[in-house]
Amino acid sequence: MTANTLLQIVFFYGLLTALAVPVGSWLCWCFTNQKSVCQNESMNWKSYCISVIAFSSVCMTALTLLLKYQHYLPFNPQGFDGMTWALAFNTAASFVTNTNWQAYGGESSLSLFSQTAGLTVQNFVSAAVGLCVMAALIRGIKNHESGMIGNFWRDLNRVIICFLLPLSIVLSLLLNQQGVPQTITAYLNIQTYESAKDAKIPLGLVASQVAIKQLGTNGGGFYNANSAHPLENPTPISNLYELLAILLIPAACCFAFGAMIKDKRQGWALYGVMLLVSIFATVFTAYFEQNPQSKYFPSSINIQPSSESAGGNMEGKEVRFGIAASSLWAVATTAASNGSVNAMHDSFTPLGGLVPMVMMQLGEVIFGGVGSGLYGMLAFVLVTVFIAGLMVGRTPEYLGKKIEVFEMKMVSLIVLVPCILVLAGTALTIFCGLGSSSVSNPGPHGFSQILYAYSSMGNNNGSAFGGFSSGLPLHLWWGAITMILSRFLIIVPVLALAGNIGAKKITPPSAGTLPTHTVLFSFLLLGVILIVGALTFVPALVLGPVIEHLL
Fold first, then answer.
1. In 33-120, which residue ranges form alpha helices assigned H by DSSP?
2. DSSP string of 344-356?
3. The pLDDT value given to residue 368
């Protein structure tokens, strides 16, 4: 690995940490400040859950209709037709669940109205819903003898207006300064040097959509090539802005958690686990992309780094970013449930492509989505304290709350639902005989394409391996159902967990209490996360990227 690559990795994660601490304090203020124009009557977990599901259902219905009938709506200078029902429902499910899986090309399928009033709006509200559910769980952990976990409508209002909107405006201006378009001008026709025919340059309100797609860990691109497109991510500086935006709020959630429960050590412990895994995954990916097996390349291609060439595997990567920035992005986008790409993961080496897949399969808890990453991580924390309690013969506790049967049932759902959905979607594709027609490459690599796709949808990530025919009816309908179940079959037990824990008394710490802010506990938590992921997905990974590497 080159010194330049290591320097970029160290610089990026150092800058991320420096920015995440104050942003976490800002997020804490948004959820704890009592001033609000909305109603402030606190809800129990059932009322909060009904509000979340009702709001999301209305959003999904409205967006489906908008996409289906966009040809009747304004700001459609290209005259694009409406989507089919299957594609409209899949896209609506994708954006409402914060997955942003895209089975279409944005610049060739969607009007400006659909991109802005439809998708950009959902980028805000789906991210806000995740943050609201996170805040509800933190209140449940913090409160005692009260089943009240806050007011959803107040939380939604404050997190959008006071947090997501200001951050997005700042990032939009920074990206626009770097050359990302922000205009309602129709597509431009230009004559290229290569052809006498006119070529179209698609334009639109790109900077504003890119800003919230990254900050909200949404990931859906204005363009089909996503953040590899030169208009969506034109320079190394815009690449750094977007990379920081992907992980900024998920990282800040750890520090917001510590501030809200008034124990910042807990937030640092969780952040340390996330940071350690991310750094290791980035180094691992960069190493195998920088040092690919020579059998993948003709003898005439020199893959060794030199003063004239970075060497390594540059297939599917943008020259303006290179291997280091591409590897950083691949890990960040799959760690953070973002899903945007600045390089084609399908072109990574087998082991280089394995890492983004594993980052999703860990349950999107290594940073994870905004809000959803932290409440997923807290579920693993409860599993860890439960295991530790069994080891010493003591009733498990977390921050003074006893972890009993109901809590473990809810945690089991949170941890296992994504695993079941990923493996079921992969198995269904093979069982229905679509294994060969759904992929561009036969054999182990084709299996990796299928496994990656359902790892993405089943964990609300949205990134694609490439080479996967996501437009087939089975994948559109089953993919939409997978994304919906992965979102709401986790949100419901999280809110139930919040309400039940919030109603418990706080038990004062004693000599037998397991401290959950120590390095020892952090490594125990890390072991639990890795073991659950390994036991679930290692057999499938062996059939895909591991065999491809060994063949």
1. 45-68, 85-96, 106-109, 112-113
2. -GGGS-HHHHHHH
3. 92
